[in-house]
What we know:
heterotrimer, A: 370 residues, CATH 2.40.50.140, 6-stranded mixed beta sheet, 35% strand, B: mainly alpha, MetI-like fold, 3 domains, two-stranded antiparallel sheet, 2 strands
Amino acid sequence: MAGQDVVLQNVSMVYPNGFTAVHPTDLTIKAGEFFSILGPSGCGKTTILRMISGFLEPSSGTISIGDTVMNGIGPNKRPTALIFQNLALFPLMSVWENIAFGLEARGESKAKRRKRAEELLDLVALTGQGEKKPTELSGGQRQRVAIARALAVEPSVLLLDEPLSALDLKLRQHMRAELKAIQRKTNVTFIYITHDQGEALAMSDRVAVMNEGRIEQVSSAEGIYNRPETAFAATFVGEQNVFRGRVVATEGEGISVETEHGLLHGVNRNALTPGEEALVMVRPEQIELMNGNAMGAAERGLNTLSARLERRDLEGALINLYLRAGDYPVHVNMHNTGETHVPGEQAIALGFHWRHTVMMRPGNLAKERA
Amino acid sequence: MHALIKTYGRGLTVLFVALVAAWVLLMILVPGVRTIQRAFIYEDRAGETAMIAIEIDRAYTEKFQLDQEAADLHAQAEAESAPSSGVPSFGAPSMGGPTIGVPGAGPSGGAAARLSPADRDARLAEIAAKVATLEGRIADLEAREDTSSGEAGMKERYSFENFTTMSMVHVRIFVLTLFYALCVTVLSFLICYPVAFVAATTRSKGKLTVMLLLLVIPYAINELLRIFSWVMILEKNGILNSLFDALGFIDLEAGEGIRFVASNGAVFLVMVYAYVLFMVFPIYNTIDTLDPNQLEAARDLGASSWRIHTRVVIPHAKPGIAVGAIMTFMLSAGSIAAPEIVGRGLHPDWFSQLIYRRFFEADSWNQGSAYSLALLVACVIFIFATMRIFKVGIRDIAK
Amino acid sequence: MTVSVSAAGQAAAPAHRRRRVEWGDAVLNLYVVVFFAYMFLPLLFMVAAAFNQSPMPSVTDWQGFTLKWFEELPGDTRFVQGLMHSLLIAGGVIVLSIPLGVAGAMILTRMQSRANTLLYTVLVSPVLMPGVVLGVTTMIFWRDFFSVQAGLFTAAIAQTSFIASYCMLMLMARLQRQDRTLEEAALDLGASPLFLFRRVTLPFLMPTILTACVISFLQSIENYNTTFFAIGSSWTLVTEIGSRMRFGLSPMINAIGVIFVAITIIVAVTHTLLTRRKG
């Protein structure tokens, strides 16, 4: 089995009641890639998955896998396999019958099915568990049966619909590593749907961030986190401190924005021009305490801000500071070096480098974080 | 439909649709519509066709009697010519069964009188002549019947006459049947409600299992047997009269047994017994879903038992009561077993018996259809009224 | 049922109330006992009379224990033939009702349309119709349109028209609890619609189908009203019992009754034990 490209061209989905679940979208997923679609619930990511697997027919556009256009082809005739959120293991069949179901549907002999099932049980580290019923297995084991069952039909594309959401945190982290390993071993194209940024960032070669039926950004995990391109992507993945202002000047990738806390400098991510409104974003871990030493900040390329401490939480290795600068809450987290001194009552001077400060065109901010 | 095709493909979907269509059309709608149509077609029985039919029947009967007599005479002749005469001939065996209800005639018991051989031959010739005339007449009549019943002659027309010509006796029976069915329904509810309540609110699992089992067994035992068991009790020499005898109220030997059976009251009582359980289960099922805390709360607030039942339990059990009422009413209004077996045909009819006689004795299918339609409409009205009163939908009813 | 409780607020009220409630419970329990006596005593009489020598079914005139009424049963050709007819009809009813029930349940649980409630109403209407009406409409339909005289065939059809509704209702209840993703998973793994139906949907429905078979069989065997009207000059065991009951009592009827009662009790107790073990 080898992975194949999945190409969406101008694909959209409008339900009969008029609701647009997916706006016209172009997307290319490369063969053998681990690709995640990350977005809040209701953003249309499951709709895209169901269109690729063939349960939904797109309202417009074409979906191709490899060189074949898939429109009009039923889910049972596509080279895809879907792993359902609830796994959908057949409760009346034993584990090995579950795994061999796709082969049985093709009319393979029982001996051949049995042999293949054993191989796949080995692959997912469930050797010898074939005779059990799915209900006799633990959550993680059922998970692996579902993967083995999907791999048994040798799909070129494996679609995963939040398959880890039912597991507890520890198991989830363990399964991430396993999924990634299986993907490497099999070289199948994985398309992984999740609302959990940890899963998306940890496993994926590339991530698409989706909101309200649109793909906001497609990039590597690192790119999504460090170089977000939209206000939504920036605020949905990881945390941001957001200030509003107006652009006064641009120069190369540098940009200056006038805010109620004075002029702030940053990176012009959306090709803003002077006069435009802008959002200024900086992540909590990029802000440092100036500890009364604001001299020469501008020379070092730092923006400065004065804020009043409202609350501090010690979280072991991290210290979270919750401050307020005028109307804006500001969140700072810093490493607990053991000597970290946080002043009490008086205004605290904060500094953050302009390279870590992102200026963006206003847009939807995420209501929840992934 | 689209979802069905998507999952099960065209082939299976077409099969499902075809099966359901056959069911709806061949078993429900078309038969129903045809029955309704017949109910509104009036056959003019006094018309020419009917007269011809009656004459044909008469001619056949006459011919049959003559044939019988001839057969008897031939048998006599054979017996006499046989060497060992003296074996008495019994003539033609009597035709059993109620099919020939010819008044005032009939060769019952081998009737042909003994005649001398000469007289016999004369008589045989006479019979042969008569039969020949009759055959001619029958052929003629049947030809006329064919032409008259052909196109317009059958004297059938659409009208309400099947309903309007219903005799007052039948109307009375119709109304009484519905009235009794209503009484059975109400009485069944009163009898059942406490039982259903106890079963649904008991805390003991063992008690519940036993109660349900004890309810299911009589429920599943055939209706006829339940009715029959009561006939044994109510018979003239039955258990009830024996009990009265033992108590000295009556003297059975002297024939003082009270005839309980074959009265409307008895039919009514037996029906309550036979259909009461159709009320228990739906009510039990709904009370069972009532949160016991509600009862506790009502009791704590000092509500009287009466209030708890009228304000908490019964409103909650409404769908179940509606289902039970509909089933009980429908079964008793349409019951044929109870009136036939308990009534022995001796007491005033039940409406379902009238329907039966219209079809199978009066051979008037159209009037029978009209009567069935009347019963059906009464049941439908009852169903809708119950749904309105108890504010439940069709989905709550059929479960 | 119980006496109403006096006004709340009195100091003695709770204890007083509790006593009243207990007293009320006792009355209720006594009523239940009386109710079951009412249900079972007549049946006990009927069963007992089957073992009485007396040629009239009776328990008061006890002439000694006998099994002769049972022994006479196999020699009674009308009973035996009636039983054959009943089994034949029941077989036909099952063969027709299960596919109809499955098809109806499939369409009603999958079809998202306003016609759904209408179709549902039509399909359950036979359950709510008097058996008399089902019997005569079937008889009329088959004679008028296909010149089929009333007989075993029409009886089976008339019974199917409402027994299929019961099957459908049972199957619908089962299908509503079905996890639809199982079917999607099967399709996704390459199953053809037929394979999916045979391997996933049918096994899921199988327990209900088996129950529906048993219930259809019992309903068919025991049916009197509908069959009485639709069977014409033929007869089943139950219509034969009915006509014998009309023409006079015989302990042979009691003997058959005992068999029916015994089968019913065995089935009911088995079912109770099975569900108890499961639950």
